[in-house]
């Protein structure tokens, strides 16, 4: 039983960052109908910004997360403003090609700037685990879970209890109606893309110290982000959060009780099963067409 509780703790830590990653992707799709293939590269950008701040500029680790969020937000806003805010950009295929192009450019710039060698991001936390009875957790993982949980709560309050959140929800449901009642939809687009990008960057800055930062780390992160939003239902914010935790539980228990070699494969296998029997996602209702 202690072993099961240990796996639950590990899955909760991983799931909290997956939830950030998934919400960032699904909020962009839900409001703008943009499939953001560059989401994984924004995750990588956050990891390298944290590395640059801590290892090169000797900034403290906590401030580096704030800087990563700010840089992710700025880059996301620039992508939306420069590449997506075009009046003649109405074809979804054209948007997808643009996002794939941005993904390739960002990945190669990261490779050019940082090289192919993995970077370790130092943290001020001890390597000795903290024990709660028979369950132990590394201080870095405990910090990551705490920050991710706080961010998810702030995001929930921001969406549900503020005028900005009300404008996002209105645009989410009906853009034309939102525009009629005075919502600046273009501004909401930019802020939404910036917010989703910042969440991806923060997830990268939080997870990279637990592993390493590499130029290719965004590939798997991007696939997992899509897996999360498919599990939760495209455009479903609550579903993305639950999907993040569900994917983490599948990976953790699959790796522990079946084979760690197929850790990443378990999640994608479940995605295939979900797509076969519930293509709208586990937490979304099927839309009526016609």
Provide key terms for this protein.
about 290 residues, mainly alpha, two-stranded antiparallel sheet, 2 strands, about 0% strand
Mean pLDDT: 85
Query: Looking across the biggest beta sheet, what order are the strands in?
Result: 1-2
Content of β-strand: under 5%
Gyration radius over CA:
19 Å
Oligomeric state of this protein: single chain
Structural class: mainly alpha
What's the SSE pattern? HHHHEEHHHHHHH
Structural description of this entry:
By secondary structure, the protein is an all-alpha fold. It has 11 helices and 2 strands; from the N terminus they run ααααββααααααα. The chain has helices at residues 2-32, 39-56, 61-84, 92-114, 139-161, 163-173, 175-180, 185-207, 217-232, 237-257, 263-277; strands at 130-132, 135-137. It has a two-stranded antiparallel sheet with strand order 1-2. α9 (217-232) packs parallel to α11.
Short description:
This protein has 290 residues and is mainly α.
Write the layout of secondary structure elements.
Blueprint: H1 2-32, H2 39-56, H3 61-84, H4 92-114, E1 130-132, E2 135-137, H5 139-161, H6 163-173, H7 175-180, H8 185-207, H9 217-232, H10 237-257, H11 263-277
Antiparallel strand pairs: 1-2
């Amino acid at each position: 039983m202690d072993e099961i509780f240990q796996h639950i703790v590990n899955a909760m830590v991983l799931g909290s960052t997956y939830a950030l990653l998934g919400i960032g992707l699904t909020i962009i799709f839900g409001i703008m109908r943009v499939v953001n293939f560059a989401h994984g590269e924004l995750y990588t950008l956050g990891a390298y910004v944290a590395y640059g701040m801590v290892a090169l500029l000797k900034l403290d680790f906590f401030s580096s997360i704030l800087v990563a969020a700010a840089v992710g937000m700025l880059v996301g806003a620039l992508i939306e403003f420069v590449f997506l805010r075009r009046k003649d950009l109405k074809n979804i295929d054209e948007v997808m090609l643009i996002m794939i192009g941005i993904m390739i450019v960002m990945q190669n710039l990261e490779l050019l700037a940082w090289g192919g060698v993995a970077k370790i991001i130092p943290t001020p936390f001890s390597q000795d685990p903290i024990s709660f009875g028979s369950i132990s957790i590394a201080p870095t993982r405990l910090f990551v879970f705490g920050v991710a949980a706080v961010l998810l709560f702030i995001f929930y309050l921001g969406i549900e209890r503020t005028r900005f959140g009300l404008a996002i929800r209105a645009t989410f449901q009906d853009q034309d109606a939102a525009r009629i009642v005075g919502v600046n939809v273009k501004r909401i687009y930019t802020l939404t893309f910036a917010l989703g990008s910042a969440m991806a960057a923060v997830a990268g800055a939080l997870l990279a110290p637990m592993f390493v930062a590499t130029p290719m780390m965004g590939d798997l992160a991007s696939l997992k982000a899509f897996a999360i939003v498919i599990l939760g239902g495209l455009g479903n914010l609550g579903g993305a959060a639950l999907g993040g935790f569900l994917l983490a539980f599948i990976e953790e228990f699959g790796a522990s009780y079946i084979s760690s070699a197929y850790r990443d494969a378990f999640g994608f296998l479940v995605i295939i099963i979900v797509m076969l029997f519930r293509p709208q996602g586990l937490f979304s209702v099927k839309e009526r067409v016609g």
